[in-house]
Amino acid sequence: HETWEDFWRKVETSNPSLQAEKSGVEASRSEVALALPAPMVAIGSMGMTSPTSGVMERSYEVTQTIPFPTKFFKAGTLKDRRIQAAAASETLAIQRVALGAAEAFASLDESLQAQKTLAEHKDVLDRHVRRLKSLAISQQGQKIHIATIEADAKVIEAEIVDLRQRELEFRNRLGGLLNLESPYMGIPRLKAAPVPPSEFGPPSRIAAVDAAKHAEEVSAAEATFAKQEWL
């Protein structure tokens, strides 16, 4: 049996979407705010050939492009905006994945519990039918009673088959969240409905709005940065 907390920890470390978002945050933090262009070196020859060395005089020129101070400042601002946007995108992804995972995990638990309950009920009906059939019953009413119980048992069996199909759907969904090539084969152990990680807050429209706002700020910062000149 596996708790929701244990399952979610595995999702955090194996889900491709979350790993991509995490890499994006790390990349935005590690990137250089403003990389200077490589210096240019030029070599030339000038004047007459020297009578002593037999070669022309050489000239060397080194140039380095540097930014105006405001370009450094804007580059730092742009990096900060990119980090904030990546972090907001990661939070949104975590909330969405956690919501879907919690729903599938709880649904799998519900399906398994329902199957267990129905299987126990069907077993009671089957045993009751077997007991009645073992008796010498000639009354028409008793035969109708047995037929009714058998019909109820078949209805329950059909419901169990349907629940097993849904169980497979939930297992496939959970396996995909764990980046597995096969269905998730664990058994949930729930005492209460699972909730997304508390450190990221409950799923809401605010996270999506926040991510969109930071994306706009990055675009604005990029436009401002592009206007800054070099010396």
Report on this structure.
- The chain is mostly helical and 231 residues long.
- It is built from five helices and two strands, in the order ααββααα.
- The chain has helices spanning 4-14, 16-30, 69-133, 140-177, 205-226; strands at 40-46, 57-63.
- It has a two-stranded antiparallel ribbon.
- It starts with a helix and ends in a 5-residue tail after the last helix.
- The mean pLDDT is 80.
SSE blueprint and pairings:
Elements: H1 4-14, H2 16-30, E1 40-46, E2 57-63, H3 69-133, H4 140-177, H5 205-226
Antiparallel strand pairs: 1-2
Strand content: 5-15%
Number of helices: 5
Please write the string of helix (H) and strand (E) elements. HHEEHHH
| Protein structure class | mainly alpha
Query: Low-confidence parts lasting 5 or more residues at pLDDT below 50?
Result: none
Task: Let me know the average pLDDT.
Answer: 80
Largest beta-sheet details: 2 strands, antiparallel
Q: Distance N terminus to C terminus?
A: 65 Å
Strand tally is: 2
Estimate percent helicity. 55-70%
What is the CA-based Rg, rounded? 35 Å
The order of strands across the largest sheet is 1-2
Shape, per Cα inertia axes: rod-shaped
List its salient traits.
single chain; 231 residues; mainly alpha; two-stranded antiparallel ribbon; 65% helix
In short:
The protein is mainly α and 231 residues long. The protein has five helices and two strands.
